[in-house]
Amino acid sequence: MPVVLARVDDRLIHGQVTVGWSERLRPDHIILASNEIAADPWQSRVYASSVPPSIEVSVLSLARAAAMLRGGEVQAARTIVLTATPAEMFDLAHLGAPLPSVNIGGMHFGAGKVEMLPFVFIDRIDLEAMRRLLAAGLELFAQQVPGGREHAVGLEQLAAMEPRL
Amino acid sequence: MIRCLVITHGNIGMELVRVTGLILGPVEGLAAMTNSGKSLPDLKAEIAAWLEEGAAAGSPGGLIMVDDYGGSCATAAQLACGHEGGRAIISGVNLAMLLGFLTWRDNDEFDELVSRIVRKGREAITLVGGR
User: Fold this and answer.
1) Cα A123 to the chain's mean position, in Å?
2) A49 lies within 8 A of chain B by CB
3) ipTM
4) What is the pLDDT of residues A9-64, one digit of tens each?
5) Would you call B83 and A42 a contact, using CB atoms and an 8 Å cutoff?
6) Which residues does chain A have within 8 Å of residue B40's beta carbon, measured at their own beta carbons?
7) Burial category of A63 from C-beta neighbours within 10 Å (exposed 0-12, middle 13-18, buried 19 and up)
8) Which CATH number fits the domain B4-94+109-123, given the four candidates 3.40.190.10, 3.40.50.510, 3.30.1330.10, 3.40.50.300?
9) Do B38 and A108 touch (CB under 8 A)?
């Protein structure tokens, strides 16, 4: 079983992932893909320590994460892949990571970000990255937790956001 | 004075601090923060600002209590505290821990205070009756 959830969430590893989605999807492995965090062993340990011992965790650069996801070892495990931004998720897809669809799970408010949904705030860089993900043939859906409302994110929704950014 | 910051999901921390004040009266150096609506970098920056505020007032370091091990509050607190000494993060905050903190903070050394609060928090979780 390959990737069971590819999620964009700026909190990365936290309760919605390690409890909410993991209770539902029963992953064997969580891959946190971030060049910044993977380059810092201490930060990597902080994030990894939040994962229950029953789930394997890897904190990897985007290139290493994509390589691992292309390989047979991870193909055999139920895997959740996390990035903090849509642009990083696009990089993973562009590097050949096989992703089923992309869950927009949490993009909190920050400078220059505009509300698309109560848990999704985006800027122009995010918008363009989401467009590239759609152009790559990936379906996007915004949903915080299993059982929560699922919102489709397509070209129409992104076009509606554009004048506000 | 040793300061304490309670960081939780929703308004749990704010209510814990408010109720602590109802029991012991107004207290200094005890604050609450929520993670609601905040990205991890923003939450980390707010915690760092609380630590800097204490350092500027002559109380470097401090104790941070979070609601859940492995959540964004705990992760942000760890990232904000870094490797500095005199800082501790305890998960599973409850009322008994806050009351213990305020009772002991003026007399205990920091490490002993942290240990006593962890013990107190665990002791407070017990089967009271009704079985």
Assistant:
1) 17
2) yes
3) 0.86
4) 999 999 999 999 999 999 999 999 999 999 999 999 999 999 999 999 999 999 99
5) yes
6) 10-12
7) middle
8) 3.40.50.510
9) yes
Asked if A15 and B68 come within 8 Å (Cβ–Cβ), the reply is yes
Q: Which residues of B touch A110 (CB under 8 A)?
A: 39, 41-42
The answer to whether the beta carbons of residues B68 and A15 sit under 8 Å apart is yes
Tokens of B95: 């009322």
Rounded to an integer, the average pLDDT of B104-121 is 96
Cα–chain center distance at B58 = 19
Give residue-wise pLDDT tens across range A115-140: 999 999 999 999 999 999 999 999 99
Of B41, B42, B75, the CB nearest to A50: B75
pLDDT of residue A73: 64
Catalytic residues of A: 14
